[in-house]
Batch of 2 targets.
Target 1
Amino acid sequence: PEDRSPAADPVDTHCPYCSLQCGMTLRPVPQGAGPDGGPDGGPGSGPGGVEVLERTAFPVNRGALCGKGRTAPAVLSSRVRLTEPLVRRPDSGRLEPATWEEALDRIAESLAATGRAHGRDAVGVFGGGGLTNEKAYALGKFARVVLGTSQIDYNGRFCMSSAAAAHQRAFGLDRGLPFPLADVARTGCVILVGSNLAETMPPALRYLTELKESGGRLIVVDPRRTRTAEQADLHLAPRPGTDLALALGLLHLVVAEGRVDEEFVERRTSGWPEARAAAMAHWPELVERITGVPVPELRAAVAMFCDAENAMVLTARGPEQQSKGTDTVGAWINLCLATGRAGRPLSGYGCLTGQGNGQGGREHGQKADQLPGYRKLADPAARAHVAAVWGVEPDALPGPGRSAYELLDALGQDVRALLLMGSNPLVSAPRAAHVEARLRSLDFLAVADVVLSETAALADVVLPVAQWAEETGTMTNLEGRVILRRAALTPPPGVRTDLWVLGGLAARLGWEKGFPADAEEVFEELRRASAGGPADYSGITYRRIAEEDGVFWPCPESADGAGPHPGTPRLFLDRFATDDGRARFVPVGHRPAAEEPDAEYPVVLTTGRVLAQYQSGAQTRRVTELNEAAPAPYVQLHPLLAERLGADEGAPIAVVSRRGRAVAPARISRDIRPDTVFMPFHWAGPGRANTVTNPALDPVSRMPEFKVCAVRLEVAAEA
Ligand code: SF4
């Protein structure tokens, strides 16, 4: 493991959770003095503790943290964290303690044996959007040069892959926000589509508050009246899965009312006639019928958006987690382009990434079709560059593999052994009961995690790995700002880092060129591998990140003594990253969700997050304060729907789809449409929302349709 002593002084670092990557300072405190280590644990079993101090200097959150960030140290000292490897014993069938040697030997032998017996693509690797850039890079390299498999993807596919695909298509480059988040406070109007950032990333809400205080307008598009929607000047509540039509209706009105920025369209875009024709086929009354949003509200939105000198559209999982997510985001981008709200300061389209390193995680090679530096795996020049850095022949690199859900769906069939790091798909994947069955059908499963997650509990070998505050590494936040998480603690004695694990496995599998365990050494290699690519990190060093508190990519290494490249906070100001420098309109049309309500399943289910939990809940469900605030799933439904069902507040509601049922107490509220129910997805067990969700995939991004599926409701015997 990394040999790092606990820091004597406070350490500046970042929150382990979402893509805001809030800055914080960790101060070491004596063992047992940290926050409560969780409902199953308690303080003090770890290697000592840290407390979180405000760090106002980091510009993104300026010291503010949500409850998840404030309580993050609890998992470090929780008694339920893993502190020794576990191996499933054939005689007992149970996971029991083992040495690291035994655990790594068993994994290496099983992966090698599977490859020999069934071919290299029978071994799969599944990563996570919370892994550091160094881990994402090392995991991608490990899969491709050590295992020689094409079967690697990561849970970031479930996060913002549709926005990434739409970004690529329109702008030639994908960076979540092509401008600093602080620009949001200084624009004139924001349309926020499918984001409840008041709960998912509360410190970001201040930018919307500042926007409104300076006279700007906020339009929120969400089927629910969320805490974020309550802040809006105008709340549009379309039926789930119809926001593509909504964007087209707005674009139709922009054209009809003469609000197109003809000069911008002519000078900086291509493809407008086709996109215009597609929008003109979606007249306002038709859009009202599809979306349920009244025409006067459409007109009001267009007026607010177009009257502002500068304006932005920001999307999140709402429009993205659909089987037409790429086209839906594309429709919102078309609206920005037609009104000249892109490629200039304080205007543009951006995506609010979800996971902590959802952005960097896909830039550096754990996505099925990508190599480090955001290079395409299918591009011969990209393969040659990266192969040279890795010391292999380009032909030795496998081609693109399956996307995340398709990989999970192939487990136990084409893919017979799986190494999984930093993900809990048994809770977070769509059609989760099926995914669970697929995981159980594997010949071999190895999981590296910090706690025994629901997925880890199925594994043949479980590796206890270090947590955020125990190891150093970089993350790339939602703005494309590369930041440094610093170690503040030594991991417990039985715990190792993910990088050390990959090095140990690589050596056992015959890789002789070394797999560094030191994060900075990995980053130096990543810099070389990314050099010249779309996401060029070659000019970024640990030292620079420390001195500048983050550096925006692309940041090439300056040549000819020109001095260091400053990084690129704002993209596309002079040209877009397409071959001709123009942004591309893509003509898109409305189409229904993969599964529309019918007589048997008459209601729409949509899913999302709540303030006190994070993703699959593997960490946050183990923190007392968070668990007390949000202890269990629920079904939010409108009083009219509750009355039809004969359900009172708290009654157990079974939400049943063609894939299974989830049961949770009713939470009756007028803040949701009468034709829609909402469930948060952070929990396993009977209330697992993803048992019900639909894995129908977007044809471009391969994003599953988490946000829309048809269900029927029943009052159940018990929750
Ligand atoms: Fe952490 Fe996100 Fe909360 Fe900030 S908003 S403290 S990064 S979970």
Target 2
Amino acid sequence: MSTNETSQPELFTREFTQNPYPVYEKLRQTDPIYRVLFPHGDFGWIISRYEDAVEVLKDNRFSKDVVKRYGPDQQNIFVHNMLFSDPPDHRRLRGLVQKAFTPRLIEGMRSHIQDIADDLLDNLNSQDKMNLIDEFAFPLPIIVISEILGVPLEDQDKFRLWSNSIIDATSSEHAEVFEKHAKEFIDYLNNWFAKVREQPGDDLISQLVVAEDSGEQLTEKELLGVVALLIIAGHETTVNLIGNGVLALLEHPEQRDLLIKKPELIHNAVEEMLRYNGPVEFSTSRWASEDIEFHGHHIAEGEIVIVALDSANRDEEKFKDADVFDITREKSAHLAFGKGIHLCLGAPLARLEGEIAINTLLRRFPDMQLQTDVNELEWRPGMIVRGVKEIPVQLK
Ligand code: HEM
């Protein structure tokens, strides 16, 4: 065992949320496979080095099947999807939606996403300043995922509230709010599925409803779990790729100037943004499906294992000058989208949205500045998502 279980390091404090990287560096050096008491009360392990992270993400003995771990009565209805399943269910569930997210299909959305980005910037509340998160980084991916799924755009505020609540439901204080919002979300989706059944369209939910009706491919719980996952992923991730990415540029003006001069660097730049301050800080939980000896540590059957993706992406053993933000860095092989069978299904879409959003912002507002001190920004609490609540910027 590595560390005294009762003396937690500075994990999960407000200071950690504001800037986790010094803690991660310490963990990588002294306790790279760290036994920890999570805020929700379970003991488990945090993996912070790159090579170990890859090993865990690719080793299917670290199961993702939540129903197997907690039993069929487990309360969280949103886990009946590919992210919380092992093969063969994982393959079946992923296979049902994969076709909608292939790189070729997503590339075909380029000019439409460009129009959405331009429209949002044409219609800002003010042409002098904005809250980058609320007025741009948030609506852009939401409009896109809502269109793919076929859900009404006017309900986006509700989806945001429900998604936030589910993602932040890591501590017991949130339990009541979670329950209320979870119920509203479930009722909303079930009503929506009923409408779609009466009048299916050519959107992804219509295809999934047909798959559920045909009986064998998808259960009712899975229909709900898969659609909820896509809505949540669409709300909680790309917004922070855009937010964290723009923030990195504003904090490194020489990098911003380089990207303005050479917009063709955008692909590389987005990869570096994902590596430098990725939107998904921790992988979702895995658990040991058997006793596992892992680099000198005994991980007992049933124990939770979490990969600190943002820590692995700053590992000096893997990335030279890992703390330096360098948009010309070559082939970074970061873990921001995970690795192995659960590698992010939405990665091609997220990359395209990020590239268009950031280049469009820079083209239209090359002199954009942060309106507040960077240390005043409030980072979101919670263990999975890494992003800022608001980013006030001066546009001209
Ligand atoms: C899985 C990151 C955007 C849909 C994942 C995982 C990561 C991730 C790290 C794996 C988690 C684990 O193994 O525990 C990101 C990041 C995004 C992003 C950083 C934005 C920059 C999206 C979008 C969608 C999406 C836009 C929806 C269209 C999914 C799905 C899975 C997944 C369905 C589960 C895949 C599986 O289990 O096979 N994502 N994601 N993601 N993501 Fe994303």
